[in-house]
């Protein structure tokens, strides 16, 4: 396995690798058609790696290193140099072969070289992923819930097709016509007890870990 820095010529394979990996993960909705770029107004540096096996990219890793101002104002850890884990993805056909482990070993050494104090990691529930971050020494510092659905006390929405004007007419539970109504969406919930107040179509548990370098 070869671990090297990302090159602009890798972009197509980078996109494919992330898409295939995330398709079978809790991040199925995080798809990109181009490589993630780091905003120079926020990040002073980055670590961008790819893993090569059998002549193809099978893993990607991106970490952005905040500038001094962003680091000192970062909500989870205030320091002179804080980093954020942006991407970690392994092609489904090459998972459980140590690709992520090797990528992170190289990345961690680079973080040490760059005098980064702490790495923030945001993820969603996946037993294998959570266990991996724990093995790396990361500590859970925050948990929340992403709810796809609607509050139970939210008014129902009724649709009617307006054939003449080729559009939908919307009505609330009282029968009043509205130009727009909140039908369903994503709600960020911080307390587990609050979940009982929702009609939930899908529930995604989100976790933030912190790894002190």
From TrEMBL:
One of its GO terms (molecular function) is acyltransferase activity, transferring groups other than amino-acyl groups. It comes from the Bacteria. The lineage of its organism: Bacteria, Bacillati, Bacillota, Bacilli, Lactobacillales. PROSITE patterns: GNAT (PS51186). Residues 1-164 form the N-acetyltransferase domain. This is GNAT family N-acetyltransferase. It holds the Pfam family Acetyltransf_1. Coiled coil: none annotated.
């Amino acid at each position: 396995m070869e671990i090297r820095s990302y090159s602009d010529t890798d972009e197509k394979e980078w996109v494919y690798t992330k898409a295939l990996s995330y398709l079978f993960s809790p991040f199925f909705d995080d798809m990109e058609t181009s490589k993630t770029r780091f905003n120079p107004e926020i990040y002073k540096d980055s670590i961008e790696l790819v893993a090569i096996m059998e002549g193809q990219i099978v893993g990607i890793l991106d970490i952005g290193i905040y500038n001094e101002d962003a680091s000192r104002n970062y909500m989870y850890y205030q320091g002179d140099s804080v980093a954020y884990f942006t991407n970690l993805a392994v092609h489904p056909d090459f998972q459980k072969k140590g690709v992520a482990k090797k990528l992170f070993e190289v990345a961690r050494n680079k973080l040490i070289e760059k005098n980064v104090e702490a790495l923030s990691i945001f993820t969603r529930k996946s037993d294998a992923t959570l266990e991996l971050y724990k093995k790396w020494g990361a500590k859970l510092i925050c948990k929340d819930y992403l709810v796809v659905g609607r509050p139970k006390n939210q008014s129902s929405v009724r649709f009617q097709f307006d054939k003449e004007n080729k559009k939908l007419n919307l009505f609330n539970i009282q029968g009043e016509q509205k130009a727009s109504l909140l039908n369903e969406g994503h709600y960020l919930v911080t307390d587990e007890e609050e979940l009982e107040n929702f009609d939930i179509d899908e529930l995604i548990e989100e976790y933030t870990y912190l790894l002190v370098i």
